Amino acid sequence: RLFNYIISTSPPPGHSGKAKRGHLCFDAAFETGNLGRVDLVGEFEYDLFLRPDTCNPRYRFWFNFTVDNVKQDQRVIFNIVNMNKSRNLFKDGMTPLVKSTSRPKWQRLPRCEVFYYKSPVHQNHYVLSFAFGFDKEDEVYQFALTFPYSYSKMQAYLNAVELKFPEAFERSSLGMSIQNRKLELITFDDVKKPDKMDPKNVIHMVVILARIHPGESPASYVVQGLIEFLAAANQPISKALREHVVFKIIPMLNPDGVFLGNNRCNVIGHDLNRSWNRLSQYTHPTLSAVMKMLKEYDNSSCYQVDFVIDLHAHSSLTGTFIYGSTYDNVYRYERHLVFPKLFATKCEDFCQEHMMFNADDRKSGTARRYFVEALSDNVNTYTLEVSMCGYFLNGTNILTQYTEDGYMRIGRNLARTFLEYYRFTNILPIPPVDELRPRKGRPRTHRPRARSKTRSEVRVRPKTTRAYAPISYTDLSICYDSATSEDGSPVRYMYGQGHAGYGGLRMRPHIHQDQFSLSNIQAARFSNLDFSSDFRLKVAKGKGGPAQEPKMPPIEMLNVPPKPHLTIIDFNQLTRGGLEEATAGKTIEREKEKIRRHISVKSSSRKA
């Protein structure tokens, strides 16, 4: 039966009979709902008392209730006055969630409207107060601690995934709870079984447990993200994991507590994550069924259980982190640290500051500590914690709130970490990159343009002679002007012994071969004459004597050809076959002017 009822506050003084518009009606008589009592303490202020867990008054933290019969633009203040956990994320900025009939998506209340403080009116207990304004009438508003995930929602989700991927996994019932609710077991097993079992070729297995505490609903979203990722048929990572590793997933270990809206306990008030070391088939039937399955696979010669991971949601810490155990065997402890390190590289919200490895005797009843002693040494047992609030970006104080998709992303990152681990241990082969990351096609939103039915005629381009643009070198030991000769080749001024004309200076005619070949460059004889930016020849003069003959540089200086560069020409005159017309006219006039200047310089030097 449900332990919550429709709660209607007493009407204000002077009113009687049926509740009028604006007299709020509270309701928690639905699955995962929790609210015990409401007191009207002012005209617009209400004190809310949470119902404790069934048969255990110690735990009072989870709340989930609805409010209706509101008036438009009505503003109220809600005070949750009996929370048992004073150290929680409300101190760090977490706020309750709200949604309404016309806005079914959960939203967090603004931080400026939420207060968490010690109240002297309530015996110095911590009180969570938040102000809210109802903007629409005829709507039902729902408030919750974090994103609810009910037993019925899990059943509906598994039914939908089973219809969508009928061959991806096997769904079975591992047992029944005290109130006769199914303990669902999801198995991913596409591993090819060998004909003859060899101890070296055992089948590796991963076991995932979740929702042992009913109030930690984010763990169910992590499991949902993991199941969706493993069930995807077109994912190469999922296919590789299913073909080499067996996954056993139990999405809800405490279905009775989830249905009743408890915070930590089952229907008889037992905290199941403190009861692994004192199992009873009558008081803990779900835990007994899980332990029986683990013992069978751990003692089997065909299977090797590598991981048992218990998923939880933390109410006082931010980010995602892992709790592990410590061992006297150093090698086992080092092997135990591999998976958390790989998982930290896959999650941007991973918080290493909150990661902890210990052997605390007070936690001997938890799954993490009990399986260390109950199972073989090959089993690595962890507790994976996700925050109920959010995580801080790396190196900043910016708090990013989690959403449903954010929790499911953690489940997908968990699957990617298993892939990295089994590749690291050589269980999975490393396929090519193309197989792991298939080339994605263009989205359907981008459609190619429709081709025109009328095709235009393609005109054949006339054949013309191809003329190459002249290229000239620039070097300190070579005098290269930017001008070109009549036939389009560079003009070279060279000094050599025994050459006639202009005092040893002559213009070398163009030879129809590769002008930049090593033989042509080495055959040249160049002087150490200095050419200024205005391209005037400067000759060093002796004291009172004739001009000294320039010395020829060694041939080793000519082994490395200089860097080429395009000659600057008038591109406006460049047409088909008009390369010579663009360069010849202006170039010849420039060369004549330079030769005249050079002759005048030589004559003046001889007279001197």
From TrEMBL:
SUPFAM superfamilies: Zn-dependent exopeptidases. It comes from Anopheles christyi. Its cofactor is Zn(2+). Residues 439-453, 595-608 have a biased composition (Basic residues). Belongs to the peptidase M14 family. Residues 147-422 form the Peptidase M14 domain. Residues 434-456, 583-608 are annotated as: Disordered. One of its GO terms (biological process) is proteolysis. InterPro entries: Cytosolic_carboxypeptidase (IPR050821), Pepdidase_M14_N (IPR040626), Peptidase_M14 (IPR000834). The active site is at residue 385. GO terms for molecular function: metallocarboxypeptidase activity; zinc ion binding. This is Peptidase M14 domain-containing protein.
